[in-house]
Design a protein that fits this description.
Layout: H1 2-7, H2 18-26, H3 35-41, H4 52-61, H5 64-82, H6 100-106
Length: about 110
């Protein structure tokens, strides 16, 4: 994942925790962007990069990671359909030992 974000101009600092970095990127934190990304896309009056989400989405659509994921998912879907998994079978209603009201009173 770090390789993909780096290829899109989002560099994770050595001192930064990768999961925190991913959250910063998807939440639109402008402080994590490279200068080249800011110059390329521009920023609005709040300093937020314009079309940051679009850049990530388009970058992923064109990436090898997307192609690989689509191939893997296609194989899984084909196997699922071959086993009759797409027939829309309904499952029985789940019954609980106690009613919802009783559970709320206990809590």
């Amino acid at each position: 994942a770090l390789d993909f974000f780096s290829s899109q101009g989002f560099q994770c600092q050595e001192h930064n925790n990768p999961p925190d970095f991913f959250l910063d990127v998807i939440n639109g934190d402008p402080s994590i962007l490279n200068e080249s990304v800011l110059a390329e896309k521009g920023v609005d009056e709040l300093g937020t990069p314009i079309s940051q989400e679009d850049k990530l989405v388009e970058g992923f659509k064109q990436s090898d990671w997307n192609k690989q994921m689509q191939e893997e998912a296609g194989g899984i879907l084909t196997k699922f359909q071959a086993q009759g998994g797409d027939k829309g079978e309904k499952h029985d209603k789940v019954e609980y030992a106690t009613s919802f009201g009783h559970q709320v009173r206990v809590v």
